[in-house]
Amino acid sequence: MDVDPVDFLHPCRCLNSQMTRRQESCSNTCINLTAVLISVIICLSGMYYYEIAGRNYLESWSKLHYDEPEYKAPDQRDSLADFRKEIQHLKEKIDQTDVWREHLEQLYTKIYHSQESTFQKKLNEALDVYDSDKIGLFDYAASYARGSVHSIPDTVPYPINKTLTFFNLVNINVLSNPENLLRPGNLPGSCFAFAGHRGRVRLKLGKRIMVRAVSVDHVRVHADRSSAPKEFEVYGLENPDSEDSGALLGTFRYDIEGRPVQTFPVDGHTGYEYVELRVLSNHGKKEFTCVYRFRVHDVFIKN
Fold first, then answer.
1. On the CB side of 18, how many CA atoms lie within 13 Å of its CA?
2. What domain range includes position 264?
3. Coil, strand, or helix at residue 18?
4. Does 222 share its domain with 290?
5. What mean pLDDT value characterizes the chain?
6. What is the mean predicted confidence (pLDDT) over 40-54?
7. Do 135 and 261 touch, CB atoms closer than 8 A?
8. What is the number of other CB atoms lying within 10 angstroms of the CB of residue 203?
9. Coil, strand or helix at 95
């Protein structure tokens, strides 16, 4: 059998081809494994880096300092003490308010009564002036003007028609009051009566004035008017306790047929706080003289 050498070359070529393919396959596998290994290493490196960097960031962020107010839980005992102090403070304020309110009420009441009293006083004075001072001149000798009787030298008050009786054992005759000269009113009998036809009355005026006029009153409705003063003088006094301190302001005559209230001008140049009425005579009554009222003015209006 003849063997051709070419027949032996074909199997060898096939075997060589298979070995070549196996080598290529192993090479590809190694390359792939190397690529996978590199990828794994890269992934692991990235994961490690990010884990370490993130941890450091969190630690640095947590170490940041903020100036936050420190909060302390309040102590119950301190809170209760503070609460009691506040209550005590409020109580003191309320007590002070009550005191002030009471004080204001008292002050208001005082002012109200004072104003009411002042108004009533002024009203009474106005009514007095209107009722009996219809001549339109203010009377500085009147009781409402704080005038008063200082003395009645050499003058004896006359008993009036009134008697005080004590257990029907003692009877006392009431003397006429010189203060009647200063009181508004002209009812019969409401006068100052003194014994005889001469009398003196020293008066203190409500204030020091320049005497410009004087007025004398007597009742008209009385049947017997002979007790009315007739001639009289008026003196200005510097010292009411001295006999020589007076200055004659004028001599006047009361007309019994004239008006009940007669006003006489005075030529005064000096102010006086004390004046004297000196009655020199009456209209015929021997037992007594009766003067209902004597007024002193700082202006003169002819009536």
1. 5
2. 143-297
3. helix
4. yes
5. 80
6. 72
7. yes
8. 23
9. helix
Contacts with 123 (C-beta within 8 Å, 6 or more apart), sequence order: none
Nearest to 221 by CA among 252, 163, 260: 260
Burial class (CB in 10 A: 0-12, 13-18, 19+), 255: exposed
Q: What's the residue count for the chain? A: 303
User: What is the edge-to-edge ordering of all strands in the sheet holding 213-217?
Assistant: 261-265, 213-217, 293-297
Tally of domains within the chain: 2
Tokens of 127: 């009514």
Residue 1 placed within a domain: no
- Point out the least confidently predicted range of 4-13, 31-40, 275-284, 285-294: 4-13
- Tell me the C-alpha to C-alpha distance, in Å, between residue 154 and each of 198, 201, 248: 9, 9, 18
Say if CB 153 and CB 159 are below 8 A apart. no
Q: Residue 65 falls within a domain, yes or no?
A: no
Domain membership of residue 223 (yes or no) is yes
Residue linked to tokens 């009385």: 222
Amino acid at 80: L
| Distances in whole angstroms, Cα of residue 43 to Cα of each of 35, 38, 293 | 12, 9, 136
Residue 228 is assigned to a structural domain of this protein: yes
Q: How far is CA 143 from CA 127, 205, 295, in A?
A: 14, 9, 11
